[in-house]
Design a protein that fits this description.
Elements lengths: L1 E9 L2 E9 L8 E5 L6 H8 L7 E3 L1 E2 L2 E2 L5 H8 L2 E4 L3 H4 L6 H11 L4 H14 L16 H13 L5 E5 L7 H18 L2 E6 L2 H7 L2 E6 L2 E7 H6 L4 H9 L5 H7 L29 H5 L5 E2 L4 E3 L6 H28 L1
Parallel strand pairs: 3-9, 3-10, 7-8, 8-9
Antiparallel strand pairs: 1-2, 1-4, 5-6, 10-11, 11-13, 12-13
Helix pairs in contact: 4-5, 4-6, 5-6, 6-7, 11-13
The chain binds adenosine-5'-diphosphate and magnesium ion (MG).
Length: about 350
């Protein structure tokens, strides 16, 4: 996908929901797409799926440019791309049985009856639904199981790419890991690629090989999930990490230094220069005047920041850790003297 642009016309102006975004997803790869609510993640997913039109740019699937295909030309390609939504409740017709729901894409694709029932049974096993689920209705199932139904439907036609838009955000915390593990297993077994969308960086880095961090419609940092997770280079990525829970209280507290300040600028009236400059603790006049382009930083990453902040972010974090441990020491001494 290259230089994708998606605008919405609204009564208060044009929303540049996705602005010049390029990304590549290799076969079998999971790419995580993260950013605050409203940064354009769902819009990007829907534009790739052709659920909404792109204003500019190119979408290539399996070597084929599918950007401006007509709906009828898109039909055979639809089976290669599927989407899983946040709320399985809304995307499953309540009046159809689970067996029926999973069979539907196969019927549309022209499978015969015997092939459909064999495939439905296979899919139900793959996603861990009990065999008797086929004759029951979606409302009889828990949120986690409904999401399994959604996954089975999405996988029915053996897609190459599945776009998972916040697939576990609506689920109980206790069952999120199960659904994530299922998705991961299925990717290992079936070689399917995912674009995994979430506002939660911690969760995404568990499942993704590659990360894309978006802010107000643009990529601010992208690269290997490991590099970005361990040594974030963009202050916005750092801020997302600060918002994520961490087991170690020292790390937790040092990260808190980067908690986001101020409000998200209006998407119809973006700031000059770097869109993040209004909330960035490192912003200079240069940032407020000139928008940084996405540039390589090291081997496995690109970042849209004028500066190399990896070390600065890290030394600020470790300085605050040592000052914390010094304080803890002093406290202990005082306690010992008393
Ligand atoms: N149908 C729409 N019409 C107008 N604006 C929209 C529409 N859908 C989304 N937007 C706006 O586009 C921006 C990106 O939204 P979205 O892609 O849903 O973000 P995310 O999925 O990251 O939360 C937001 O500012 C949102 O308000
Ligand atoms: Mg969304």
């Amino acid at each position: 996908m290259r230089s994708l642009v998606v605008d919405y016309q609204t009564s208060s102006g044009v929303v540049h929901a996705v602005n010049d975004v390029s990304l590549e997803i290799e076969p079998g790869e999971t790419v995580g797409l993260v950013g605050e609510s409203g940064c354009g993640k769902s819009t990007l997913g829907k534009a790739i799926m052709h659920l909404i039109p792109a204003n500019n740019g190119q979408i290539v699937l399996d070597g084929q440019n599918i950007t401006s295909l007509s709906p009828s030309a898109m039909r055979p390609i639809r089976s290669k791309m599927q989407m899983i939504f946040q709320d399985p409740h809304n995307s499953l017709n309540p009046r159809r049985t689970v067996g029926n729901l999973i069979a539907q894409p196969l019927q549309v694709a022209g499978y015969d009856k015997a092939a459909i029932s064999a495939r439905v049974a296979e899919l139900m096993t793959q996603v861990g639904l009990p065999p008797d689920a086929a004759s029951r209705y979606p409302h009889e199932f828990s949120g986690g199981q409904r999401q399994r139904i959604g996954i089975a439907r999405a996988l029915a036609l053996k897609p190459k790419l599945v776009i998972c838009d916040e697939p576990v955000s609506a689920l109980d915390v206790s069952i999120r890991a199960q659904v994530i593990n299922l998705l991961q297993d299925l990717s290992d077994k079936l070689g399917v690629s995912y674009l995994f969308i979430s506002h939660d960086l911690t969760m995404v880095q568990h499942i993704a090989n590659k990360l894309i961090v978006m802010y107000l419609g643009r990529i601010v940092e992208t690269g290997s999930a490991e590099t970005i997770w361990k040594h974030p280079a963009h202050p916005y990525t750092q801020a997302l990490l600060a918002a994520a829970p961490v087991a170690d209280p020292h790390v937790m507290r040092s990260r808190k230094r980067f908690v986001l300040q101020g409000d998200l600028p209006s998407p119809t009236d973006l700031p000059e220069g770097c869109a993040f400059s209004t909330r960035c603790p490192f912003a200079t006049d240069h940032c407020r005047q000139e928008r940084p382009i996405l540039r390589p930083l090291g081997e496995n990453r690109r970042t849209a920041c004028h500066y190399d902040l990896v070390d600065q972010i890290e030394s600020a974090a470790s300085a605050s850790v040592s000052s914390l441990s010094r304080k803890a020491e002093e406290k202990y001494k005082v306690g010992a003297r008393a």
